[in-house]
Amino acid sequence: MNFLYPGFLFALLAVAIPVIIHLFNFRKFKKVYFSNVQLLKDVEQQNSSKEKLKNLLILLTRILAITFLVLAFAQPYIPAGEQKTTRLGNSVSIYIDNSYSMDALNKDGSLLDEAKRRAKELVKGFGLNDRFQLLTNDFEGKHQRLLNKEEFLKALDEVQISAASRTLQQVINRQGNILSGTTNLYSFVISDFQKNTSTGKKLAGKPGIQYSFLKVNASALPNVAVDSVWMLSPNHQPQANERIVVQLKNYAEEDATNIPLKLMINNQQKGLGAVSIGAGKSVRDTLNFSGLTAGWQKGIVSIKDFPITFDDTLSFSFKVDDHLRVLSINGAHAGNYIKTLFATDTYYQLTENAESNINYNGFGNYGLIILNGLNNPSSGLSQQLKSYLNNGGSVVIFPDLDAAVNSYNTFLTALGLPVIKQLNTTATQVEKIDLENPIFKTVFEEIPKNLDLPSVNRFFTFGSSQSSKEDIMQFSAGRSFLSKYDLGNGNIYLSASGLTEKDGNLARHPVFVPLMYRMALSSGMEESVYYHLGADHALSGKNISLGKNQTLKLKSASFEMIPELRQAGGKTTIYLADQIKAAGFYNLMLADSVLAVYSFNQRRSESDMHYLSTDDLGLLTDKDKFKIFDADKDAVKLISGVNQIGQTLWKLCLILSLIFIAAEILLIRFLNNNKKTI
Description:
By secondary structure, this protein is an alpha/beta fold. It has 15 helices and 37 strands.
């Protein structure tokens, strides 16, 4: 047997022992129980064995009553399982789930308020000398220490809903970091146990810790969320038409009809709609807008859906550039077709390098690189292009058909492209164009019946390739004329023919202009238009050059931090160290200049209001180490202490104490009755 509060035992015994000794002194016992001196003399005269027995029974019942009363206050118990009985004191970790789902309501208010009440009731069941850890989804440093009861209750009152969420295994691991030593170790997890908190694997606890899960239950609520958004082009022109795809998800078991949808850009309404979604389904809607000026744009997609509203808005940001830089590396006989094309639109800023004088250092500054009629592309060029492509760049290759095939094949192989099999000198017409390809999808309002396509006088035929391939234009028999290959995070467009008049009419054909413009606009790696709180700890962007003593700041209306920067591969990575806690827009500032705008949103994992049942939790846990309770059914068992320490005996001790007090009263009354008859 063990004692939860041994201090009570020693204190009460210190009072009880003198009383018991006093009772054993028969003379004093006689003075206490017999006020009538004459009766005392009669008893002393009779000195019968029957009276002695009665007095001893009264003494015994009082001693036992006092003993069991002392034990009841000391709260004896039989430890559960293999719990050690030599330990004194308790270390208790209580996890309060404060994710967005805990803002849901039940008959007692919000789930978070109920979780706090349950935690307070648990703490009251422990002693003054026990120590407690308060743990939330924020995993804050201040929660990595043990508190006394008063400090714990004060910290508990400060817990608020947070955008962070954790898996059960993460919570258990965190509790295990602080629960150690020679005390009894208890872990309590109070949560609604959303399904997203489980990875599906069995939970692994730390030896020596008794784990208890208390499930609080929300009323069943429907929910529709703005799940995600993305732009259809990585580049954005001033005043150009823009398209954004919005995905909505219905997490409810019923259909959602006519959900209002609104798009705001820079606080101006740019789109309205209404969407209907089947139960458990997702739908996508494409919104069109225009009229943007150069600079960073702040967008918000919102719906109206009650009562769960934290996921009804999703903010995003993107930049409209006033120009797009294009690099053309030209061979000796390339011609001026590329220069003439891009000179007609001031949005495109063209830079030209001769094949013999290439500036490799500036590759990362260009959205598109064109290899126009190179006669002998070098291995150094292929290495630089691979690095450029890995960072999301786009390359277009118009070969010199008079170049040495072996030299070209070495270059193409280095880039993971198919090798040249032969030069075909038969005049050929392009027979097929993929109008559903993003390059052409928005070029034609309707598909022409007799579309005039380019023709060539000669062209290369290529072998097979391991790289992913999309044919944009083809000759007969499925032979490639212009194909797109994926390499790293970028794309290579490989043409079977050059741009010279000797090669064919592509450079003079009407399809050439939209083809090149669309390849330029589609170039570049799609950057994230938003990030998730608690999940994305690094931001990526274009290369940022800092001068001496210059620092960047990430700022919002009520927040400011100096982030850590790392430069690699022409990109800048910004590390946040989990300091962003609130959703909204954050400006990356260099002095007074805005270099970038980043948007943060709550994670959508909290939108799914489906929960693990107690049976589900049972399958994830070891029954010997984990006890599972439902707040609506058996929270009383949890709070009473049965779960904390095993089989408690204080109630039995209290009942026995009352029984012996009653027995003493009956003996005294019976004795008095006998005296009257005498």
